[in-house]
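Renewal narrative, Specific Aim 1. Our central claim is that a sequence can be written position by position from structural information alone. The example that follows is taken directly from our test logs and has not been curated for this report. It begins with the structure tokens describing the chain, in the order in which they were read.
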């Protein structure tokens, strides 16, 4: 049963990419057979199990692996096309523990199982780092691995699949010499991929004439021409400290992996006011919500008005397989303003999911509009800012997603899964 390796596909015909197919069901059966064939009572069980998981994750292009301890063993799940799927339940290991093996590889304390820990491990195949997070639960430590991919697939802004209008607006903002650009969305929505494409665009368009630096946690993809630095909490080198130090490195463009707290947000905005272009990510449901959230964090409205150039919010939405069928049933339309829609059926080609691959949808909010700027200064809420943004020409995530439903590219159910209630 074939499926797409690539998570992102173009939302326009001009930028479409030819997908690469693999037989997901065959690969899944192969790894399950390999893992169940290992002997839990041996010393090599944990290392061989982990090696198998890493090989599987890279082959199918998963973004996350979940290892959930249960009463009977260790349940392994993987996220594919944004949806969590179960691989199986396996022994945790007798003489060697799978979780302990991962903790050793990521320099975590194996004897400390009652508090959460975070670490990183280099991919066995030489790829980007893998983030390892442990969390104490009823039956043991739950472990989640985040795999950073698409480093060699979506190199340029044109490859990402944003609309031509959004891509051009983003390029125009990258010409600025100061100000901040926020890319928002939930985990796994492709925010970092967009930022890396921005940095590559700056490297290529300026021929190395601008000083580009970054502070990340971790470095997901190496970018030639950018001085990249990663957080080292054990050494006291956090995002806050790193960003303050970067300002003494004569930077012109600064990439901050993620704004997580008020302190980092304040430093990033201040940097954008003192002659640096700052690019960063931020967790928010929409572009308008990002602005109101920053205000709620304590960032002064006048700083946002002066320092924030633009906010882009994005999501990844699954594309329907060719086996989909058309429906006019109100239950299938999920309350969307459409008269009919195509809905998933499932076949061997899409692994019975009804979907193949994903596409990006995004909204771009510019703070150059006078009405929007006034709303920020007045501490207006997200709904009011969103209304003004749409009036000024912003195409919202909901509008893009609904247009995809009308075009038969995705289903109303998928739109609800990704965007929730309107």
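The sequence written for that structure reads:
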């Amino acid at each position: 049963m074939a499926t797409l390796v690539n998570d992102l596909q173009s939302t326009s015909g001009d930028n479409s990419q030819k997908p690469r197919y693999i037989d997901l069901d065959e690969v899944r059966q192969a790894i399950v057979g390999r893992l169940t064939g290992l002997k839990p009572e041996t010393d090599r069980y944990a290392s061989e199990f982990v090696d198998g998981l890493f090989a599987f994750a890279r082959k199918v292009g998963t973004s996350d692996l979940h290892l959930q301890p249960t009463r009977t063993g260790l349940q392994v799940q993987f996220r594919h096309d944004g949806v969590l799927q179960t691989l199986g339940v396996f022994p945790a290991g007798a003489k060697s523990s799978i979780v302990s093996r991962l903790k050793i590889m990521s320099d975590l304390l194996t004897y400390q199982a009652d508090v959460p820990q975070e670490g990183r491990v280099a991919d066995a195949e030489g790829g980007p780092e893998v983030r390892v997070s442990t969390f104490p639960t009823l039956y043991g430590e739950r472990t989640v691995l985040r795999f950073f991919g698409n480093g060699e697939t979506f190199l340029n802004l044109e490859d990402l699949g944003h609309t031509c209008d959004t891509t051009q607006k983003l390029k125009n903002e990258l010409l600025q010499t100061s100000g901040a650009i926020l890319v928002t969305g939930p985990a796994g929505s492709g925010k970092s991929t967009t930022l890396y494409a921005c940095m590559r665009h700056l490297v290529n368009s300026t021929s190395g004439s601008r000083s580009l630096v970054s502070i990340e946690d971790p470095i997901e993809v190496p970018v030639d021409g950018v001085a990249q630095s990663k957080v080292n909490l054990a050494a006291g080198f956090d995002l806050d400290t790193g960003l303050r130090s970067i300002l003494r490195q004569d930077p012109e463009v600064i990439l901050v992996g993620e704004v997580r707290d008020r302190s980092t947000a304040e430093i990033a905005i201040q940097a954008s006011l003192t002659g640096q272009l700052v690019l960063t990510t931020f967790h928010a449901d929409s572009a308008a919500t990002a602005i109101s959230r920053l205000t709620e964090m304590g960032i002064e409205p006048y700083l946002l008005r002066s320092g924030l150039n633009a906010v882009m919010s994005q999501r990844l939405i699954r594309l329907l397989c060719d086996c989909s069928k058309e429906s006019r049933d109100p239950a299938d339309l999920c309350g969307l303003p459409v008269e009919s829609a195509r809905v998933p059926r499932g076949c061997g080609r899409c692994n019975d999911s009804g979907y193949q691959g994903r596409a990006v949808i995004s909204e771009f909010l510019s703070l150059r509009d006078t009405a929007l700027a006034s709303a920020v200064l007045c501490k207006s809420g997200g709904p009011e800012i969103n209304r003004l943004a749409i009036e000024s020409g912003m195409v919202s995530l909901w509008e893009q997603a609904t247009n995809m439903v009308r075009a038969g590219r995705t289903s109303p159910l998928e739109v609800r899964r990704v965007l929730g209630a309107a």
